[in-house]
Amino acid sequence: MGGFLFGYDSAVINGAVTGIQKHFGVGNGETAFVVAIALLGSAAGAVIAGRLADHLGRVRTMLLAAVLFAISGVGSMFPPNIEVLGFWRVVGGVAIGIASVIAPTYIAEVAPTAYRGRLASFQQLAIVLGITVSQLANWALNQAAGGESTNHLGGVQAWQWMLGVEAVPALVYGLMALAIPESPRYLIADGRDAQAREVLAEVEGPDVDLDARVAEIRAVLDTSHKPRAKDLFGGRFGLLPIVWVGIGASVFQQFVGINVIFYYSSFLWQSVGIDESNSLLISLSTSIINVIGTVVAMALVDRIGRKPLALAGSAGMAAALGVAAWAFSFRQGTGDAATLDDAHATVALVAAHVFVFCFAFSWGVVVWVLLGEMFPNHIRALALSVAASAQWIANWAITVSFPNLSDWNLSATYAIYAGFALLSIPFVAFCIRETKGRALEEMG
């Protein structure tokens, strides 16, 4: 549910963008600010999530995120002005940032080694399902309002419903968090070995040697100390090399431009002459492709490993983005008068769907699996917070820049994203270590 809300809250703004622009009478600059400001909140949430997880525990941190999701949804539904909407977007962003760190941390810590990759993949599956449901809800509300997101439903404009519905899954998230066990590694670190044994017996099965597992985890924890920010430093370039690799993976995941599709696809397709209703339908179709690709990744991540999936996805994304850049080069006009002929519009649509599929079966899943696995035990939560924060800052940079870049040159913008997809290939080949089949205690 944390991943679901992560995806829902991240992408729901896509359907509300046009309504927000019309309702508040703002242009692309203000729109980009409102869309992107949540991502700065996400970066802040990711930064504090590690310390919250180590201080409060994994489950209580999830409950905090659920509360923030709920109040941000209600607040975003009734903003008196664009600035207040931006504030509630930040609150929701903090919740996303916390969820982006706590879910992979928790999953990695409770999952048996043989299933860890697939179970971590459920986080990404939940994210893409959240994205898909948000696009389905956006399209359904738009249709119910007669194809215009500023039309009223029950006295409230459709775009307001799009943002407010989030409070319902937030409540479910909070209730479900109360029903799951605390992380055994956190319990041992907190001196609650008896509870840790109960959890390990529950999640790893009756055949596990509980004394040996507790001793193994205790040995790792005893040779370390309470994680502090300075523990992440010590490498030639300041941070430890493994932390730089985590940051690099996070940045590459965003610099291919994936969230342009999920935050701005309605805006994107309208910028080449497609109407609002059909652009929301296209957004829904790409979200469905995203789910399919994620299921493929879940089936393969523990079979063929993390690196092969990432390399294949990078190559596929580079090709698809290159084709999209070529197709968009035939766009005529700018702003509301922009058009793209049917043949090249079709090529662009196909390329966009191929790009989303290639991302979903590779980087969409692999990065979150790696971030939950690759760091040593004593700095895992803290290092994951830094890497996730870098991801949100990179996401913000792409998100806030896209409207102006697309006005400048949509084709060149996609060529830039293709360039980053190409650069990610040598990064994976030379910097990423395979984590398939390795216990978390082996990570050094």
UniProtKB/TrEMBL annotation:
It is found in: Cell membrane. Residues 1-436 form the Major facilitator superfamily (MFS) profile domain. PROSITE patterns: MFS, SUGAR_TRANSPORT_1, SUGAR_TRANSPORT_2. Belongs to the major facilitator superfamily. Sugar transporter (TC 2.A.1.1) family. Keywords: Membrane, Transmembrane, Transmembrane helix, Transport. The keyword Amino-acid biosynthesis does not apply. It is a multi-pass membrane protein. This is Sugar porter family MFS transporter. The keyword Membrane applies. The chain crosses the membrane at residues 32-50, 62-80, 86-107, 119-141, 161-180, 237-264, 280-301, 308-328, 348-370, 382-402, 414-432. InterPro entries: MFS_dom (IPR020846), MFS_sugar_transport-like (IPR005828), MFS_trans_sf (IPR036259), Myo-inositol_Transporter (IPR050814), Sugar/inositol_transpt (IPR003663), Sugar_transporter_CS (IPR005829). PANTHER family: PROTON MYO-INOSITOL COTRANSPORTER.
